[in-house]
Specification:
single chain; 373 residues; alpha/beta; 7-stranded mixed β-sheet; 4-stranded antiparallel β-sheet; 37% helix; 14% strand
Length: 373
């Protein structure tokens, strides 16, 4: 009896069987022809990697155990001890912690480039500068990078460009089309989309770097489990619908917050007065994603009161699920930064980040209005 499943089954196995020596010889002589050990490759993790690779327009990808593992793999694809990495100053705190605390111990140094200096790198370059790490939309202030200009500046100096595309997703922006060498995601966020998966993915613009990523993932054990891969692929099937709702809801909320007397500033690329709004529209079309931040007075008591009053935005230090949530960058995602870095980036007590879900926008807007009092 032949079985033709519509959905790929979960290959919940650590190892695959061979009939004889010819089978094992085929595995080594014809890479990709069959599976041996799930750390080296599994149908479910390969399905996820290839699906995101197609969305991003890449030349190969790997699925990893988390977004942090994806960042690690991307950096190690180009760097070794003695090399130097540039990083946009407006970056996720976990990325900064990886560079500062762990990769520095391996002999890879890092320098941070202020947002306004990203397109003129000559004063930041060192003899062994290998790559620049930046985000399509920065976390948490939603600054938007001009990917084409940044890729041209990097390549002029023989520096590779690695872009974290988590906030934008490939439905808004495809960094490889603008010249990025690697794009990556915390699949945990929008790609899986339901706050029940921890995963990452790295997509390469060249087959050579894709092969290098596969080697790094296999040898360092960064690969993703079959079950997590299957769940992430399931989430991908609704990505287009979810991004539409995330974006529509976030714009409505940003417009409400912009007019509220207690709110000092709103950071959302979909607002016409956002500094990079024209750029975001050029790179992302008519949708601007589901993430936004806004600033209350720097009063911890006031911030706590707002958090307690909100019913539809629980304080949850992550983002991008179908259910809305809020986060506090100073005390969570950017906690590892020095006080000077936090102040320079504007990450203060009053800064709130919203991850806007796909609930009814009228209910979300009403909840925030009552929480702000």
């Amino acid at each position: 009896m032949h079985i033709y499943p519509k959905i790929t089954p979960i290959y919940q196995t650590s190892v695959f069987k061979f009939e004889d020596l010819d089978g094992i010889a085929q595995y080594f002589d014809e890479p990709g022809s069959r599976y041996m050990y799930s750390r080296n490759g599994n149908p479910n993790s390969d399905e996820l990697a290839e699906a995101v690779n197609r969305l991003e327009g890449g030349q190969g990808a790997i699925a990893t155990g988390s977004g942090m593992a994806a960042i690690l793999a991307a950096i190690l694809a180009y760097c070794e001890a003695g090399d130097h990495v540039l990083c946009a100053a407006d970056i996720y705190g976990g990325s900064a912690a990886l560079l500062n605390q762990e990769l520095s111990r391996l002999g890879i140094s890092v320098s941070y480039v202020p947002f306004d200096e990203l397109y003129d790198l000559k004063h930041h370059l060192q003899p062994r500068t290998r790559l620049l790490l930046a985000e399509t939309m920065s976390n948490p202030l939603l600054r938007v990078v001009d990917l084409k200009a940044l890729a041209e500046e990097c390549h002029q100096h023989s520096v590779k460009l690695v872009i974290d595309n988590t906030f934008a997703t490939p439905l808004l922006t495809r960094p490889i089309e603008y010249g990025a060498d690697i794009t990556l995601h915390s699949v945990t966020k929008y790609l899986a989309g339901h706050s029940d998966v921890t995963a990452g993915v790295v997509v390469a613009a060249s087959p050579e770097i894709a092969a290098r990523l596969r080697q790094i993932g296999m040898v360092m054990g960064l690969t993703l489990s079959p079950m997590e891969s299957w769940l992430a692929v399931r989430g991908l099937k609704t990505l287009r619908l979810r991004v539409q709702e995330h974006s529509s809801n976030a714009l409505a909320i940003a417009q409400m917050l912009e007019g509220h007397p207690l709110v000092q500033e709103v950071y959302y690329p979909g607002l016409p007065n956002h500094a990079e709004h024209p750029l975001a529209a050029r790179q992302g079309g008519t949708q601007f994603g589901g993430m936004l931040s806004f600033r209350l007075p720097d009063d911890e008591k006031l911030v706590n009161q707002f958090m307690r009053r909100s019913q539809r935005f629980p304080f949850a230090p992550s983002l991008a699920g179908v259910d809305s949530s809020l986060s506090h960058p100073l005390s969570t995602s950017h906690r590892a930064l020095t006080p000077e870095q936090q102040q320079r980036l504007g990450i203060t007590v009053g800064l709130i980040r919203l991850s806007v879900g796909i609930e009814l926008k009228e209910e979300l807007v009403a909840d925030l209005e009552q929480a702000l009092g």
